[in-house]
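pls ignore typos typing on phone
magnesium ion + seq
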Amino acid sequence: MLKKIFGRDDFPVPDRSSPLFRNINWERLPKHVAVIMDGNGRWATQQGMLRTAGHSTGVSALKNILKTASGMKLNALTVYAFSTENWKRPHTEVDFLMKLFSESLMRELEEMHEYKVQIHFIGRIEGLPKSLQKEMRAAEKLMENNTGVKFNVAVNYGGQDELLRVMQNFAQKAKNGELNPEDINESMIEDALDTCGNYPVDLVIRTSGDQRLSNFLLWQSAYAELWFTDTNWPDFTPEEFVEAIEDFGKRERRFGGLNK
Ligand code: IPE
Ligand code: IPE
Ligand code: MG
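k done
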């Protein structure tokens, strides 16, 4: 029971020779995996607990998935922690989440740094509590020269909001005479997104049964493969994460072209 509530905190970073990875086709490993960590509230409610208990347990699940991503040498893992729409929730839940982000970051910082994670926060960061912003910037700075998995955490993130910021930025430059509208191309847009420097998303995983994007990485997921599971996020295991990666390895991606 304790294990179920708190997750497998003793889970070590597996390396590529781990039995966990035995069925992975390394030639077809996605470069960038994005995860919509949904179902914390439902998980908690189903066990007669407060929704907030689901969020806390969700952090343990995330820790194990990050270790798994790191061990398999994934290039990038982007996770959806809080959307621009999540402010609609009761302020007690929002306050709890902001505290949880801060506490979890402070607690896990050193360990993530040890296994060379490069953390980066995406979204409208200036809309978050000032103290959290400072902690986020400090964590990014600490890990900026690391060479392991790029771990992007989307907080106060919305795909539409991100594109709106890019458009405002371009319009301002055009107005100042620094940018000619005809010169705007796709790669300039990519460079202006919060995910600048990352590969396009290859695989989107969403837990908890709903099959939608909920405003996550709209531009970046243009040709992503989608993978859904009924498992609620706090119960999502490294094994199931690997199952999604294995399934990705079997997909035929055409990008609008024809089969070879
Ligand atoms: C996802 O779990 C976490 C956040 C959105 C912060 P939810 O809180 O959405 O859980 P459900 O979907 O209500 O079960
Ligand atoms: C998406 O989940 C956002 C996060 C996981 C942070 P939501 O629970 O907010 O999405 P909807 O409301 O079901 O679309
Ligand atoms: Mg939800």
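Residues 38 surround magnesium ion (ligand 3) (CB under 6 Å). The chain has one domain: 32-247. more later
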